Amino acid sequence: MSKKLLITGASGFLGWYLCQIARKEYSIYGTYLSHQIEIPGTKTLKVDLTDENQLKQVFQDIQPTAVIHTAALSQPNFCQTHPQESYKINVIASKNIAELCAGASISCIFTSTDLVFDGKNAPYKETDPVNPVNTYGEQKVMAEEEMLKCYPMTAVCRMPLMFGAATPTAKSFIQGFIETLQQRKELNLFTDEFRTPVSALTAAQGILLVLDKQINGSIHLGGRERISRYEFGKLMVKIFQLANGKIKPGRQQDVKMAAPRPSDVSLDSSVAFELGYSPFSVKEELEMSVSPFPREMQH
């Protein structure tokens, strides 16, 4: 295969799914930092993306035809308390990757977040002004701006809340939910936090569609439905048959977190839908999370 795809953050949740489904069309090279991983059909490389020389060397050695940059420190609470450490990977490394892609004139895709918005005017279109309320959101906005400034051909994929079956080195938020409920403990979920979630499998297919269509600028890859954390949890209990688990409704303002959270960052993804991006309903996306690959070809 002459098409070489470099995926940063292959040991991360979304990165792993991308490696799984992109290998049909590309020779895949995946980077990791601390979580060594073997992925069938992927050459994995230990790379510190914050080290500019290492990054340049990787581009020189692989000479990729496209790059999907998913690596990040993405826990909002961690970014809030470790702003300098997260800035290095979330902003500086992202800018350096865009510069290297610009220098080679190759496709560059960056995974951003719905948390670039303040949650007051959902659903959000690509053209709506950003106004993050926490450090993670701020860093993603800076990365978007820096990357597009030095390489306008960059595609900025704003991703929603993602879930799915755990990978060898990463989990999504639902694994913690399931564990809590299986232990018959109470799970507190917000009734006043709304997102447009999708499975990681669907998200990865959306990103590869953006790459295939050679889109540039911002594009939203949210799900079809706006749903609260609480309603999502209730749906999950039904699908995973966690009848013994108890979900308790709560409110954002009653829980102290390091990073402030916006209340509704639902994405309007109609631009992507028109391109052929086709998420299932939240219920179906959750059902796919039980065994994610058999229905893959339906997309």
Automatic annotation (TrEMBL):
InterPro entries hit by this protein: dTDP_dehydrorham_reduct (IPR005913), NAD(P)-bd_dom_sf (IPR036291), RmlD-like-bd (IPR029903)
Ranges for domain RmlD-like substrate binding: 4-279
Coiled coil: none
Protein name, UniProt field: dTDP-4-dehydrorhamnose reductase
Gene Ontology terms for molecular function: dTDP-4-dehydrorhamnose reductase activity; methionine adenosyltransferase regulator activity
SUPFAM superfamilies assigned to the protein according to its UniProt record, in alphabetical order: NAD(P)-binding Rossmann-fold domains (SSF51735)
Similarity field: Belongs to the dTDP-4-dehydrorhamnose reductase family.
